[in-house]
Amino acid sequence: xxQPNHYNNLVIFLSELRKSIRLLGVSLILLTxxxxxxxxxxxxxxxxxxxxxxxxxxxxxxxxxxVKVAFFGAVYILMPxxxxxxxxxxGKPFHVTGKKxxxxxxxxxxxxxxxxxxxYFVTLPYGVEFLxxxxxxxxxxxxxxxxxxxxxxxxxxxxxxxxxxxxxMVFSAQVGLFSRQVFEKNRRFAIxxxxxxxxxxxxxxxxxxxxLMGGPLxxxxxxxILVIRLLRFDEKK
Length: 237
Description:
The radius of gyration is 21 Å and the shape is flat. The chain is mainly α. The mean pLDDT is 84. It has a two-stranded parallel sheet with strand order 1-2. It is 80% helix and 2% strand. Helix 1 (2-36) packs across helix 3. It has helices at 2-36, 39-50, 61-77, 79-91, 98-131, 145-162, 165-174, 180-185, 187-201, 207-231, 233-236, and strands at 54-55, 143-144.
């Protein structure tokens, strides 16, 4: 009996998501074009923050780097709209509307921006400094602007996304997918998964930099359990 319910929920989710795809697409294109005219300033901010000189090795290199930064800026600015559309579609099959929908969107955006700022001001500078610390008199870094932009933007977005862990934990508990007890009993597997994720996503393999991602992520895991306990979802089932 579970199979039809999951199938129907997926159909409802995709149907709801499809309604907003055109709006998202148009908004993303227009905002990317607008941010493109500010992309030089954004690259300069990244460059000065990380104190690196940049070079390009192809005719189209600088232009493509500006396009990447513009797209990143558009996604960053549109995150509240993206989260509203996503949560509206996800919540539709489970009747998550009104105030509940607002708080899911708010919490997701808050954690996303918190994760990106933590990455930009803490993890990223340390990681870049560590990686470039292996240079010597006979080996000097020549950093491509395209590779630099890709590295910075993807890393910042990755931090923002993984910081949303507590919200999806709370949602899964509310709709009955996973209970609080499941999260509590599987802490050791969560720690292992977080350690693997930190090793894959951090720019350096050193323990300190991995801890800068893994530590906050595990703390957010515990926050998710605490929020589920406070909201007493298990008692409502």
